[in-house]
Structures are given as C-alpha cells and as structure tokens.
C-alpha cells in the first residue's frame, strides 16, 4: 500500500461518481446514473441531472467508503471535477467536495474531467510512459492530445470541428429509433451487421482537408449521410437494414478515429497511444485500434470499458497524480468552469498556499 488516499467526486453530466484510490490502486468506484430519467427526452436534461446529483451524492459517498473499507477521516486529499460539463451539475459535486475539504481539513484539487478520462488507465496498467499520444472520445469532446505530462503539460493536436464522436452515435441512434445513449446500443446492433454494406463518408480525410485538418475530426456530414440514406429507403417503402446501417456508420467513425490517432503517434514520434472517454468503451474502436497500433509497433493503453464512461475513480486517480507531482491545492473559492480547456489540468491554485 503506497501513495496518498484520494477521494474523487465526478458530477459533470448524468453520472454521480465517487471513487477512492490509494496511489494507483483502485479501492472503490461508485457510480449512480440518472440516465433513465433522460431517456424519454433523447438527451441529458441539465436541471434533471443536477437534481439527481443532489440526491445521489451522499449515498454514493457512503457506499464508496464502505466498499473501500475506510473512514472519511483517513482521506488525505479530495479531488473534484471543476469542468468541463453542465454548470448546475458541476456545482453539486464541487459543493460536496468543498464541504468535505473544510470538515476534514484536507486539501481540495479541482481537476479537469477530460484529463481524468485520459489518466484513468493508470489504475489498470500502471504509470504512463510520457510523452505519449491520447485519443479522447466522449459525448461532448473528441480530441487528439500530446501528453508530455499528465499533470502539467497537455496540448491539443486537433479536435472535432462539429459533433463529438459520442454525439454522432447518440444522434444516429435517435434517427434509427434506438434508445439513448446511442453508443452502447449501436455497438450491440452493429455486431450483427456488415460494416462494408454501405460506404458512408470519412470526414476530413480527403487530401485537400488533410492539409489544414490533419488531426481534426468531423462527424456531422456522416450523420447527415446516414439520415439521408435511411430517409430514401423509407420513402421508397423499403425496409431499413438496421444492423448494416449501424455497422457501416460505426466503421466510418472508427476508421477515421483510428487512422488519425495512429498518424498522431507517428507525427509525435511516440510509441504509446492512450484512449479514454465513453466511446473508448466501443468494441469496434478497441479492436481496430489494437490491429492498427500492433501493425506499427505502437503500444495501446485502453482502460477496461467500465472506466471509460464517466466515474469518480478517474478523478480520484488524477488527484493522486497531482498530489504526487507536488502541485498546490485549489482555492476553496474555486468555481465551476463548463468550458474548461483540456490543457488546464488543475484549476485555481491557492495563492496563499492554502
Ligand atoms: O465520457 P462519457 O461517459 O461522458 C462525457 O463526458 O460525455 O461519454 C458518453 C458518450 C455517449 O455519447 C455514449 O453514447 C458514448 O459515450 N458511449 C459509447 C459506448 N458507450 C458509451 N459510444 C460507442 N460505443 C460504446 N460502447
Ligand atoms: Zn466524460
């Protein structure tokens, strides 16, 4: 047993997460999701999510302590998502974290949710080789990152210029009449389909686009192409082959994500690719990355699927890294930042040294 005992709180979207780690060891990861309450709206309703966090946070905290078999008084530091995310949702987790920091007299670290997605693999596969490249694919973000230091030096090589990958999955699921969130459903339906059945477009891969957008993504044209294809079938009174549409759409997404991620590794001259975010749980993305990284001698680091989607453990382990790097805690006046850029790992260091 080594390293600080860190409690992490996540509340940026529709999952209330409380994780507890000791160094790089995962002790508890309690997640309460309000997804059921959003299904009939086809997407997350911010106010509903905030109310659900308020109800779920204390029970999740209690369960996490029980699972980790620790008393709150043993905790060395509190880490919390300070952004990006939904304002009202972030505020619930931040308030809980501040209350704990004050009551326990422990340092508070307001950290970046996106960097948490990238850091979480440390729990499964140990310290990160740095520098490395990271493919971040979530519901709200899709980026290629150069990770020189997970606590202090992350730069964005490129990002989506329109929809995020997860957003594309959610929108395509909706137009196919499948339930929300769309990613896991399309992943399942696609398993029975032919990925080569329909040639959907690969955004920003034409030579003229690569000059300006080598590491950027675009998924809105793909979504429109799927929509048009389905519309024409329906107009002509033909059956829509769901599995083939899902598999062909998924192949288009994963083909581009993978090709550009491998290109980023070669551009940076790094031999490790890290993946994170909800879409990193996708079975085809994981398989295709495995294949293409192996061909080029790149080591692929993929967290187990349960750690890819939002959770508190990713925030706790990023907190543990930040503590380990000796960075100063955040001020207790720390605010939520819904648009926090991925390059800001830790928010609002306390100028008075706390
Ligand atoms: O990272 P995450 O849990 O939340 C955000 O920070 O956005 O990502 C949620 C996204 C949703 O769009 C969901 O449809 C997608 O991740 N997702 C998946 C899979 N599981 C979750 N997408 C594709 N395949 C999956 N298996
Ligand atoms: Zn996320």
Account of the 3D structure:
- The strands form 2 sheets. The protein has a 6-stranded mixed sheet with strand order 3-2-1-4-5-11, sandwiched between helices.
- It folds into 2 domains: 5-120 and 311-347, Nucleotidyltransferase, domain 5, CATH 3.30.420; 130-303, ATPase, nucleotide binding domain (Nucleotidyltransferase, domain 5).
- The chain contains 13 helices and 11 strands.
- With 354 residues, the chain is an alpha/beta fold.
- Helix 7 (182-190) crosses helix 10 (242-268).
- The model has no long low-confidence stretch (mean pLDDT 96).
- The two termini are 28 Å apart.
- Residues 113, 117, 138, 277-278, 310 line the site of zinc ion.
Quick description:
The chain has helices at 35-38, 46-68, 87-104, 113-119, 121-125, 165-175, 182-190, 207-213, 220-235, 242-268, 283-295, 305-308, 313-324, and strands at residues 5-10, 15-22, 25-33, 77-83, 108-112, 132-137, 142-149, 153-159, 272-276, 299-301, 346-347. By secondary structure, it is α/β, with parallel strands linked by helices.
How do the helices and strands line up, and which of them pair or pack?
Elements: E1 5-10, E2 15-22, E3 25-33, H1 35-38, H2 46-68, E4 77-83, H3 87-104, E5 108-112, H4 113-119, H5 121-125, E6 132-137, E7 142-149, E8 153-159, H6 165-175, H7 182-190, H8 207-213, H9 220-235, H10 242-268, E9 272-276, H11 283-295, E10 299-301, H12 305-308, H13 313-324, E11 346-347
Parallel strand pairs: 1-4, 4-5, 6-9, 9-10
Antiparallel strand pairs: 1-2, 2-3, 5-11, 6-7, 7-8
Helix pairs in contact: 2-3, 4-13, 6-7, 6-9, 6-10, 7-10, 9-10, 10-11
Bound molecules: 5'-O-[(R)-(carboxyoxy)(hydroxy)phosphoryl]adenosine (KG4) and zinc ion.
The site of 5'-O-[(R)-(carboxyoxy)(hydroxy)phosphoryl]adenosine (KG4) has 19 residues, from α6 and α7.
